[in-house]
Amino acid sequence: MWGLQLPIDLPFMYNIKMNDSKTINVKHKKRGRPATGKTPIIGVRIEPDIIEAVEQYRLGKDPEINQSEAIRRILREWLAKNGYLKDPT
After folding, report:
1. What confidence score (pLDDT) does residue 86 get?
2. Cα(45)–Cα(10) distance, rounded to whole angstroms?
3. What angle do CA 20, 25, 26 make, to 5 degrees?
4. Mean pLDDT computed over every residue of the chain
5. Which residues 6+ apart lie within 8 Å of 42 measured at CB?
6. Domain layout of the chain by residue ranges
7. Is residue 89 within 8 Å of residue 73, measured between CB atoms?
8. pLDDT score for 1
């Protein structure tokens, strides 16, 4: 015999210690839906007559914007007009 003979069903493994320079850093994916915006969401209940007025504003100013953007613009304009917001942009 040439050396140590191992039984066939004996499990064995090699432990190889790699240098730190060969380590691969993997960035794992986050679970869930990706974030869509940076600003916080504020939920508000609005009466139908106000929603209709917002729609009229939106259609008169810029029909391409959505309802949320129209509400943001109305609020920003009102705050700037009444001195609560210094920069109306």
Report:
1. 83
2. 69
3. 155
4. 80
5. none
6. 52-84
7. no
8. 47
Instruction: Report the alpha-carbon distance of residue 67 to residue 44 in Å, rounded.
Output: 13
> How many CB atoms are closer than 10 A to CB 61?
13
pTM over 0.90, yes/no: no
Report residue 7 as tokens.
């039984």
Is residue 57 a contact partner of residue 70, using CB atoms and an 8 Å limit? Answer: yes
Distance CA 59, CA 53 (A): 10
Residue 82: in which H helix or E strand, if any?
none
Q: In sequence order, which residues have a C-beta less than 8 Å from that of residue 64 and are 6 or more positions away?
A: none
Mean pLDDT for the stretch of residues 62-78: 93
What digits encode the pLDDT tens for the residues 3-38? Answer: 566 556 656 655 556 555 566 778 888 888 877 778
Query: How open is the CA angle 15-16-17, to the nearest 5 degrees?
Result: 115
